[in-house]
Amino acid sequence: MYKKILLATDGSDLSEVAQSHAIALAKAFGSSVVVIYATPPWSSLVVGDAVVMYPPDDYEQTMDAAAQKLLGKVSDAFKAAGISVEAVHNTDPQAHKAIVETAKAKGCDLIVMGSHGRHGIAGLMLGSVANKTVTHAHVPVLICRT
Length: 146
Prior knowledge:
single chain
């Protein structure tokens, strides 16, 4: 049913729950998996009249190192389960766009991700990566919670 599954991870406990579901689904359907970790691109921080700068090269190196560490750990779990896995680090100011675009580009037919499940005013004002992904995705999205 699902030939290629995209797992969106941020390293949180909820992402680990989603990872467990992605492993189970990939085993059940003989699917391969694409794991994505999306980070925001570098930008300066403006506070009042001051601009706080984190050097772009340092930021990119720090984000890339963190992404490679996380993606390596997640990929190892899929490999240990005998599942073919590809890891992708994407930088986009809107994580949901990175997830949806990567799913399209890689030919994924299911997106699996965790959700913090914000409700009420917080959910309306903040939205969530999960809600935005469901809204914009061209394929089914499995939202995992604890």
